[in-house]
Amino acid sequence: MTKPLILVTNDDGIVAPGIRVLVEIASEMGEVVVVAPDSPQSGQGHAITIHDPLRLKKVNIFPGVEAWECSGTPVDCVKIAKHVVLKDRQIALCVSGINHGTNASINILYSGTLSAAMEASVENIKSIGFSLDDFSFDADFKPCRPWVQRIMQYALEQPFEGGKLLNVNIPKLQADQILGMRICRQADARWVENFIEGHDPSGQPYYWLTGEFINEDHGEDTDIWALRNGYISIVPSMHDLTDYKSIRGLKGLSLLSAEQHL
Amino acid sequence: MTKPLILVTNDDGIVAPGIRVLVEIASEMGEVVVVAPDSPQSGQGHAITIHDPLRLKKVNIFPGVEAWECSGTPVDCVKIAKHVVLKDRQIALCVSGINHGTNASINILYSGTLSAAMEASVENIKSIGFSLDDFSFDADFKPCRPWVQRIMQYALEQPFEGGKLLNVNIPKLQADQILGMRICRQADARWVENFIEGHDPSGQPYYWLTGEFINEDHGEDTDIWALRNGYISIVPSMHDLTDYKSIRGLKGLSLLSAEQHL
């Protein structure tokens, strides 16, 4: 039996410790190919590179595993992996991460980790974005391992039943403190921005984005609730952004056009 | 009565002809403030700038209209507009575009134009992304004008009834050939990538992203159908990416965790 082909990527860059965990776990389950950014790409969202060429370089970072670093965004990495590196071979699973820092709630929009996974789902590939709620470079990924292993195994064995992308966030806890996994919805939270204002060495003003994450969604079925209560959150997510509930309410707008010649 | 405050942005950059159309129309309806990228930002998706400072410069481009160019992405522009330029004043409407090129279907993910509008919707601001199905710099925006005017007026007067972001795409047709507006869902289409491979002057290989847009969604309720049949497409869109239909099917995964101690 041929082993399933697993594509591994991330947004923290190919040398970030988090991706190594995914490579090691994936290697026990299938043939692994890594295509990841050659530099940190946090906050790149679903950006793609269209005005510049991309560079792709084979690297020997993970023993026995084919790995490539790419100059582009996380989404670029998935595109170039599928079409250049893997020449349209069938990919059984794409895993992205483990991100250093949570990507729960609205962060799915800003996250390169999740956008890479979403790009794979657009390409009809099962995909999972993993994030640990710890921003530090030397975050302890050991408690994540059995859970990541379990979720990846499930994804390889089971159909996702409609959802093709899982947004998995893991709380910063010891292994025996993690209470389990919860299937959640995305919390309706957001960032309240703040800009640090300063002046550069030549006296010109600059603004540096920072902010505070605000969750006013008190539902107990959200990813934020799960994380704050000791659970791993799993949100099945999708790339159809249509707000179906609003279609009917807007019919008045479409009728306007029939009423009068413009 | 105070005039409604309208924020105008885009992703083609502040000097692109498409934004001028929005500024002119918005100026007839309210107080207009423009904050737009100082360079083209197509394909930036929901990227934000976290590792570099942003620059913000007042410019005199639109007669009688306050305008700022920003060094960041379209999403950065909305964030800095709200919190630095407008100091959290109430924004009645954010309009983004008119993009030179369509942003129907899956392009909502890649588009800086739509991501800027979506960022405004995350901030609880009504917002509309406008795109014309014509990539050329000297695209003729005249046929768009009465429709854009109509849709913006509607947005200012009516609640969106649940949806806060409209993705509006306009076909490349003469004014009298446009048949009207249709409220649609996002077509389930995607790009099939192709990479142009070459070598740079020093002999190093590069890969340049290009692709073909493939629509295998034959529904007549999609944005692509509307555009191809002479209609303006309006897709109410949202930033909750939860795939609610898949939550139940994944319960087996969450049960796994209770069954055995990891």
Beta strands of chain A, count: 11
Low-pLDDT regions of chain A: 258-262
Total number of helices of chain A = 7
Strand order of the largest sheet of chain A: 3-4-2-1-5-6-7-11-8
Approximate shape of chain A:
globular
Number of domains of chain A: 1
How much is the radius of gyration of chain A in Å?
20 Å
The greatest interface here is: A-B, 91 and 91 residues
CATH fold name of chain A, please?
Stationary-phase Survival Protein Sure Homolog, Chain: A
Proportion in β-strands of chain A: 25-35%
Mean pLDDT of chain A: 93
Main sheet summary of chain A = 9 strands, mixed
Helix content of chain A: 25-40%
Explain this structure:
The structure is a homodimer of 262-residue chains. Chain A is an alpha/beta fold. Chain A has a single domain, classed as Stationary-phase Survival Protein Sure Homolog, Chain: A. Helix content of chain A is 25%, strand content 28%. Chain A has seven helices and eleven strands. In chain A, the strands form two sheets. Chain A has a nine-stranded mixed β-sheet with strand order 3-4-2-1-5-6-7-11-8, with helices on both faces. A two-stranded antiparallel ribbon of chain A has the order 9-10. In chain A, a hairpin with a 5-residue loop joins β9 and β10. In chain A, α1 (17-27) packs across α5 (145-157) and α2 runs parallel beside α4. Chain A is globular and about 60 Å long. Mean pLDDT of chain A is 93; it is low at 258-262. The interface between A and B is large, with 91 and 91 residues.
